[in-house]
């Protein structure tokens, strides 16, 4: 129809239509836009370059419609010079409003055209411009913008070309998934989670470690361990003072180290005795569990700490031997002990000439005497210990399976005279050098180091007789961590004394004493659990 109209116009021109001028042959218009230049035939108007003529024969034909001769951009069909046609006339999707390929895109030649961003050209378009997209001008991974132009984990990207920087995921709101009990360490493009001390796991999930049950706690001896989330707490056991790592009997908490021949030893030292078997007395088969026994007899200074803190009788079952049921304090004994500090202070002053207690405190390293069995028991319970059993005391004095005659061995045999054997024990009133016994015969604890026992205890022979737990009775044939708890009238006393003869220094020597009495030759020491 178009070409027949044109032929008609040409024919009319050739026929010399009235007033018309001759036109040149038809010329192609601009690429993709058919048209003619020159004057139109009679009844027509001149056509503008690139536009269809407006003569009578083609009036009413719009661009892109049949008869217009112009491609329709956005119809999804590639016409003439269209570089793309994605089925719409929208921009910013790769194929522009004029069906030209937009910068940063590549388009196929399908119908309709499909366009995708060019990754690595530095232009941020399409999905590259969406959240999670990027284009840093190359396709190398590991710098925040991946080889597929997506933001790599742990990075944030912006600008054109994209500039990427590490995200610190460890900051609040940074998006890390570390457990609340883990430490977060930022790394380039990521982060690491590690469980805190006291917890175990992979860092994302951390579980508390019970250091107390796993023996990982650094609590010292005579402490209790309490597990806490991620940690633990050490506390000194009842009767002990310290920081929970190092604990000592509370009787020494404010007492300087002044015991022993060097006057600089810890008065509360308590060497351990490894358990074992031995012959108790003359023929009893004895067996004892490991325990600790004070190195020195309880001093006046230690007992003074007890008096200053005195709050009455111990609690029911305090000071019990852990392997012997019924061996602790009994409330029936409460009346046998002072009601208050003043009464206790008065009670231990039993002999003006030979009592070691004095209010001035200038005899604090002498062994405490004038103490009843009940007071000795109560002190040991308060101080974190207990009175040793007859079995335990003899085990220490005999050197366990050594079965020594004397704590220091089988020789020398004390003569009872002021000679070389005096170096082994304070006995027989020899120390003062006077004919009669004198207060100077009571020596500072540990003054006879030659007489030390196998396990480190001093003055097991001489110095003071020492109270033990047992009621006095005939020894049994066997004794496996035993104690005689059958009530009697007297308790067992061991060890000889400063004013006693040499025959009482033997490890097997034992006498009986009324538990309510007090004497200038009676003292004690405490046993303890390791």
Question: Can you offer a commentary on this structure?
Answer:
The chain has helices at 2-14, 300-308, 341-347, 373-382, 390-398, and strands at 105-107, 115-117, 155-158, 163-166, 182-187, 190-195, 199-201, 206-208, 223-228, 231-236, 240-242, 247-249, 272-273, 276-280, 284-288, 291-293, 465-471, 478-480, 491-494, 510-513, 522-523, 527-528. It has 530 residues and is mostly beta strands. Among the domains are: 1-9 and 26-70, no CATH class; 263-528, paralog of FGE (formylglycine-generating enzyme), CATH 3.90.1580.10. The strands form 9 sheets. Strands 20-19-17-21 form a 4-stranded mixed beta sheet. Strands 13-16-22 form a 3-stranded antiparallel beta sheet, with helices on one face. The longest helix has 13 residues, at 2-14.
């Amino acid at each position: 129809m178009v070409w027949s109209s044109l032929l008609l116009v040409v024919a009319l021109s050739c026929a010399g239509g009235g007033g018309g001028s001759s036109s040149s042959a038809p010329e192609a218009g601009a690429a993709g836009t058919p048209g003619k230049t020159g004057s139109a035939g009679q009844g027509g108007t001149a056509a503008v370059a690139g536009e269809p003529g407006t003569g009578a024969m083609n009036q009413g034909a719009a661009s892109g419609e049949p008869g217009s001769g112009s491609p329709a951009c956005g119809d999804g069909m590639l016409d003439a010079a269209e570089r793309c046609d994605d089925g719409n006339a929208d921009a910013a999707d790769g194929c522009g409003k004029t069906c030209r390929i937009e910068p940063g895109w590549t388009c196929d030649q399908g119908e309709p055209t499909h366009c995708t961003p060019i990754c690595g050209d530095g232009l941020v378009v399409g999905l590259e411009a969406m959240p999670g997209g990027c284009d840093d001008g190359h396709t190398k991974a590991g710098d925040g913008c991946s080889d597929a132009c997506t933001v790599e984990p742990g990075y944030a990207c912006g600008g054109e070309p994209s500039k990427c920087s590490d995200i610190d995921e460890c900051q609040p709101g940074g998006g890390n998934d570390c457990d609340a009990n883990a430490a977060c360490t930022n790394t380039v493009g990521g982060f690491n989670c590690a469980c805190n001390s006291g917890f175990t796991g992979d860092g994302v999930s951390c579980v508390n470690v019970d250091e107390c049950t796993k023996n990982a706690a650094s609590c010292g001896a005579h402490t209790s361990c309490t597990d806490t989330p991620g940690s633990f707490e050490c506390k000194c056991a009842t009767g002990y003072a310290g920081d929970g790592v190092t604990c000592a009997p509370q009787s020494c908490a404010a007492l300087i180290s002044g015991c022993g021949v060097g006057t600089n030893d810890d008065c509360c030292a308590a060497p351990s005795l490894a358990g074992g078997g031995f012959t108790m007395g003359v023929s009893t088969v004895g067996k004892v569990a490991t325990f600790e026994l004070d190195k020195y007899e309880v001093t006046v200074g230690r007992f003074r700490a007890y008096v200053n803190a005195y709050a009455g009788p111990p609690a029911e079952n305090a000071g019990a031997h852990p392997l012997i049921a019924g061996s602790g304090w009994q409330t029936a004994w409460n009346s046998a002990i002072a009601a208050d500090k003043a009464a206790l202070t008065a009670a231990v002053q039993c002999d003006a000439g030979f009592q070691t207690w004095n209010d001035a405190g200038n005899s604090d390293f002498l062994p405490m005497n004038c103490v009843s069995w009940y007071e000795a028991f109560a002190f040991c319970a308060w101080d974190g210990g207990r009175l040793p059993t007859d079995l335990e005391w003899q085990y220490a004095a005999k050197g366990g399976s050594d079965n020594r005659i004397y704590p220091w061995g089988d020789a020398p045999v004390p003569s009872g005279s002021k000679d070389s054997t005096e170096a082994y024990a304070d006995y027989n009133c020899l120390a003062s050098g006077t004919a009669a016994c004198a207060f100077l015969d009571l020596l500072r604890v540990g003054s006879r180091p030659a007489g030390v026992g196998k396990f480190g205890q001093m003055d097991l022979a001489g110095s003071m007789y020492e109270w033990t737990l047992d009621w006095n009775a005939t020894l049994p044939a066997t004794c496996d961590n035993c104690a005689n708890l059958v009530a009697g009238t007297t308790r067992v006393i061991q060890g000889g004394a400063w004013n006693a003869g040499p025959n009482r220094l033997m490890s097997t020597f034992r006498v009986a004493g009324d538990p309510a009495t007090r004497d200038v030759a009676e003292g004690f020491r405490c046993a303890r659990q390791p």
